[in-house]
Amino acid sequence: METTKVGIREFRSDLAEYIASSKPVAVTRHGQTVGYFIPTQGQVEADIAALKKASKILDKLLAAQGVEVDLVVTEFKAARGKASAVAKRLKSKAA
Asked: What is the distance, to the nearest Å, from the Cα of residue 38 to the centroid of all Cα atoms in its chain?
């Protein structure tokens, strides 16, 4: 696979294009290669499939244990709200 060589400034300014590309990029600084950027196209579908599979397994485990998801979510939100309130109080005391 052919590698494109670009300077670090050009790489930073055109990063979105390099991410969308499927070609590896050799990033240079003053003519010396300082790193390589290798885009990972196509893994998104595999990641989504793995997450869906894990979700189905989790659903089965929760059902087997009799866990009510809505109750867990409600408890999580309440705990998160308490933690957020404590963090805000600590931040206001520090200021």
From this structure: 17
Q: What are the extents of the domains in the chain?
A: 4-37, 43-94
DSSP helix/strand/coil, 61? helix
Structural contact between residues 35 and 27, judged by C-beta atoms closer than 8 angstroms: yes
Percent of the chain that is helix, strand, coil (3-state, to 5): 65, 15, 20
Q: Is pTM beyond 0.90 here?
A: no
For residue 38, pLDDT over 70 is answered with yes
Task: Return all residues near 14 (Cβ < 8 A) that are at least 6 apart.
Answer: 6
Task: Centre a 10 Å sphere on the Cβ of residue 43 and count the other Cβ atoms it contains.
Answer: 10
Residues 6 or more apart whose CB falls under 8 angstroms from that of 55 comprise none
